[in-house]
Amino acid sequence: xxxxxxxxxxxxxxxxxxxxxxxxxYEQALAGIIETRxxxxxxxxQGSLAWLIEQYRKSAEFQSLSPITRKNRDAIYxxxxxxxxDLTASRITPEKIREGLKNRAGKPGSQRNFLRAMRGLFxxxxxxxxxxxxxxxxx
Length: 139
Description:
It is a single chain. By secondary structure, the protein is mainly α. It has two domains: 2-31, no CATH class; 49-131. It has six helices and two strands; from the N terminus they run E-E-H-H-H-H-H-H. It has helices at 20-31, 49-58, 60-63, 67-84, 94-103, 108-125, and strands spanning 2-3, 11-12. A two-stranded antiparallel sheet has the order 1-2. Strand 1 (2-3) and strand 2 form a beta hairpin. The chain is elongated, with a radius of gyration of 22 Å. The protein starts with a strand and ends in a 14-residue tail after the last helix.
């Protein structure tokens, strides 16, 4: 159960309402002793690249990939989420994809796997995105 605490953040109280555990936590919250934390916040902002990757990972299309492909793409998506997860997915341009390829310069296998992973993500998200994600790769 979550009870409002004045103008501050909400505090999640453990146990059933009126149980000893609940009452003890309620008293601590009133006294300002309990640690406060938000009741629930989504892991990623809707529409961000990290959110899109999370949705894709849950999709039937991603689940239909072979286990090794999923493992490899998960590694790439974790890296992408760290470096650009806060970016708005709809604003990912071919230049951003090229930048990701440039960051993997000298590693043709990494470049190829990155491009395949991003192409798979955006083909799932926007079917006609394929023409935008085929930038010429200079070697």
